[in-house]
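S., here's the first fold you wanted:
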Amino acid sequence: MRLEKTLNRFSLRKALQTENLIPIALTALGSTLKHLALIHKQRKYRASSYLEVDRLVISIRKIAVAIWICIAFIPTRASAGLFEGVVDALHGFPEWYQDASGLVLEPCLDLTGACGPPDEVPTTFPSPVFYWVAEARMYTYGGKGGNPDATRPGGQATATLRMELMGTFPLDANGDRTPIAGSQLVLQSLQIRIDSLRDQALYTVTTPFGVFADIPANVAFDSNGDRTRNVDSIKETFQLPADPILPGNFDQSAFPTSPYSTASFSFSGMDRFLTCAGGPQASGFLGPVAVILGEPTLLECTIEGSPLGPAFDVFRIEGPEVGGGPLLWAELSGTPFAIGLDPWVAGEPSIDMIETTQFQITGQLGPARPVPALGTGALIVIVALLLLTGQHLKAAPTSKTA
């Protein structure tokens, strides 16, 4: 009786204190085997010893059942999304979010440029706030009119990947997110926008969170066959939760399935905060800042942290003439979208892949917190089965003979 009580207390205590299921299993089973070896060494073949062995075998079986249930039916930490803190009384959003690696970020409210342009950082509440943003841009083959963006030389056509976790508000009747106290919610989204592509061609986009395959490009033409629009040839947004959405929804644990998933990849959301290579800045922010022409400016950096491995720390587009080619030049020439664009040299091969590892990253570090490895459901299952084991052992038969 003393042995099973010791085992039960040991296993239950470890289940409550250990943050990883594997150490729980190893410590519990190790303790059990140690007691079995001790009994065998002492060669005490009394009824009580046989009974102890029988009880220990039952304990092993039930511990194994608990582990099997947790592995088979309870999501692992790597796919469980982000953990949120308590709601802040000032702005009505969670105080922090923690990713699968343990990195904790607070709402980014700094006015020195680390959280983006100071005029876009909220100073009064309620107002939308960002916890994390990672954005990459690169040129595609298109001239003026491809993307009339004042921050890009000549308004040249671009491709943009933007990933973010933001506190915001539900859409109103006009399609706007109007700040209203008490209606706060949190969204994470992955947005892909690519200008100046071949109409109806299929493109594959590689991101730090997976590959989106065979996305069709759509370009508008007039009755003469000339392009009337060259922007957003591809514009896709994957968002959690999807609109319409209710206030107070801060859970980020289940992303919708992407229509461009492949047999080897199914987009399940973003459970990591990408950082610059080398980790967060000494300032407590994720991205480097420099003063350029008297204005604080968030700089680009090489990213790291993809849950899929270093090969996915990139924004890559593959498809017909994404970086330029003779057929795309033939479609653009003679239109406003060719202004400022160098003609394609006859005989030059097309460029069917462009990529970048340079991102602007926004985020403000929060206080370090332990990484929850098991959900509440997993802990309940383990504790319940361990308690049931104790009850069964107490009722085990005592009539064995030596």
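And the second, which I think is the more interesting of the pair:
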Amino acid sequence: MKKLNVRLGDNVYTHVILWAIFITYELSYLYLASGKLGNFWDFAPHYLLNMILLYFNTWCLKKTYAEKNWLLLMVLIIVLEVAVYLCIHFIGALLFVYLKLLPNIDFHSQLRLAIIQEVYRALYFIGISFAYWFALALNAQKKLVFELNNKQLTHEKAIAEMEKNLMQAKNAYLQSQLNPHLLFNTLNFIYNSVRKISEKSATAIMLLADMMRYSLSNASDEGMVGLQKEIDHIFNLIKLNQLRFNEKLNLKIDVGGTFDDELIIPLLLLTFVENIYKHGDLTDPSFAATVSIHCENHLLKMVCINKKKKANLNQGWGIGIKNAETRLAIYYPGRHEIKIADAGPVYMLTLELQLS
């Protein structure tokens, strides 16, 4: 049986008010029926004992409700409670008589009636405690159902949002795939036309076509490509930019390790290198940008260091890095660490990635 999270006495003020109303009602009834109330010691200990019995029995219900034989346990507890209640009641009465807080009581003539009255009184408050407990349990059950409904509603909203995002992503993908063959055929035509005039321009067009083909295809069903293919296109990006700037850019790349059997999400490492060209100052021969990529035992480490452009000293590094971090979190949760040192004129990015 599932244990309910029932909290006892959440609102103390409510309990105090209800007890005050109950005691006032009983004392008023007693006064109207007999015309007298008696002294403080005649009723205060009784109500204190009644309160203790009620809350103790409720506490016992809370502790035993999750047990398999809770009804049998509660019967035994109630018998014990009534016995202890009677003992405390009569020992207290004798003590108060001895201390002369109460008048002498003829226990011999009134014992049987007193036992019946006190047993009834004990069972009366035990019954109230059962009603109190079930009210608490019902309220806890309602709260549990409400929380579960809220969680289910939140889950359904999250699923609907994911489906919406997936549909948008599919639409965006389909839009990006609008007849890429036409694009590549056109680039091939331009390449053949330009090659007769400028071999350098033709090479740039071919490098661009290769990189665009790589960005639009080649991924497996799991969205992965060979790590070696990613490295190859980093070299293509470097060659393309060197052609753009007449070999005047200062960038060194160091690659080592085993890449052949490794897989990686496409364009991840390429994004970090492209970020150097976008925001880095590669015109200073005394401070060449460096890219280091090494892979051993399925652990990939990439370090990019470059001097910042003066116009970018106090600017962020665009959405490319943020998107790369998001993709890493999705595809490699708990298997990657990326550090960015962006203070001062030098930018440094370090990526450690467990590929498998």
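Why I say that: The chain has a mean pLDDT of 81. The chain has two domains: 12-155, 246-354.

Talk tomorrow,
H.
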